[in-house]
Amino acid sequence: MNRYILLIACFLAVVTLSGCIDELVPLEKVSEPPDSSMYEFDVFLNGSQLNGSFARTSTFYLSTNSSAKVVNMIDNESLLDIMPLEDITRTDAEILSNIVVIADYANNTSSSIDIFQNYSTEQKVSSLNYTISEKVIKGQKHIYLNFSEPIRGYVAYTMAVPTGQNFLHISQAPSVVRIVLPEGYTTGNSLVGRARPDPQDIYYDNKGRMNLVWYNMGTEKSSVVGMFETLFKTEVQTPPNTIKLIAVKFYKDSAPGHLLVAGVILSSLALIVIADYLKKRRRLRKLREEIEAGAKGKKPQT
Predict the structure, then answer these.
(1) Domain-located, residue 49
(2) Whether residue 105 sits in one domain with residue 230
(3) pLDDT per residue over 266-275, tens digit each?
(4) Could you report the per-residue pLDDT of 20-71, keeping only the tens digit for each?
(5) What separation, in Å, do the N-terminal and C-terminal C-alpha atoms of the chain show?
(6) 253: nearest Cα among 178, 161, 189, 168
(7) Would you give the distance in Å from CA 128 to the centre of its chain?
(8) How far apart (Å, rounded) are the C-alpha atoms in residues 252 and 104?
């Protein structure tokens, strides 16, 4: 009897210990610290200062692996509204990753180019607190990076983008947008693809990459508005948070040349086919005339 009691006690002890072990197995995923070395913190302001502060400058470093590295220069702002274009074929992809903040609260600094130059040189990740939230407005997802108070400095992140070489960005006014194409890629060919709207500035950096720049997106006025202001002698204010869509089709530098060669080959083949068709048509017409002439006992025309 005592032996059975001992066996039951041992069995219960084993079950209890197994339960304790099972509770220790699940481990929380430890998030990796942000890596600032993945980004290029370039001081790109170009004098775009509005009302004592620089307009937000966003630089998109495109790649061919369905991601873009984004570096924002923030001056006296507390909210970063990101409108990503999701890829329906990659529903499990993480939209934002490796978020790096190199900044300080605006009250502790002053708006100047020097402060951004210092941040770009130090590249020391700041410990500023922020929250991330999502919201869908009119079918478009918005991701908000919200700081407890306005900051001044850099906010960088890696963003998943739809597969392919068509990049779309929804810009909010006022802002400066710079898009850096991968090395060895270009845009601007009317047949292969180009950027819309046309960039206000195009140049190549020291790595040979094409840079496309749009200044103060959303603050520019259309020709119709300009005519209205001239006619009625009044100024039309640009609505706040005006949204502008930038679309860039990029491709390898050799793509236009390959397209030209392909066009020449196709044109040559088309000419050969047309010439062969006309030759056979003349031959059939001559044969028909010979048959008709033989039936009538007449000599066919030459």
Answers:
(1) yes
(2) yes
(3) 787 888 888 7
(4) 444 444 444 456 788 999 999 988 876 555 556 688 899 999 999 989 999 9
(5) 125
(6) 189
(7) 26
(8) 40
Which residues on neighbouring strands pair with residue 62, listed in sequence order?
68
Same domain, 233 and 276: no
CA distance 246 to 60: 12
Instruction: Give the whole-angstrom CA distance, residue 102 versus residue 43.
Output: 13
Do 59 and 70 fall into the same domain?
yes
Whether 206 and 138 map to the same domain: the answer is: yes
Task: Tell me if 229 is assigned to some domain.
Answer: yes
Q: Give the integer Cα–Cα distance in Å for 231 and 36.
A: 52
**Main-chain phi, psi angles of 170, to 5 degrees:** -100, 110
Q: Across-strand partners of 196?
A: 247
Q: Is the Cα dihedral 158, 164, 166, 170 positive or negative?
A: negative
CA 249 to chain centre: 10
96 and 209 housed in the same domain: yes
Same domain, 170 and 57: yes
| Residue 278 lies in domain | 254-302
- 50 and 88, same domain (yes or no): yes
Q: How far apart are CA 86 and CA 186, in angstroms?
A: 24
User: In this predicted structure, what is the pLDDT of residue 224?
Assistant: 46
- CB within 8 A of 31, min separation 6: which ones? none
The mean pLDDT of 105-117, rounded to a whole number, is: 90
DSSP-assigned beta bridge partners for residue 186:
251
Scan for tokens 């009538």, then name that residue: 296
Q: How many domains does the chain have?
A: 2
Structural domain contains residue 30: no
How confident is the model over 115-164, as pLDDT tens digits?
999 999 887 899 899 999 999 998 889 999 999 999 999 999 999 998 88
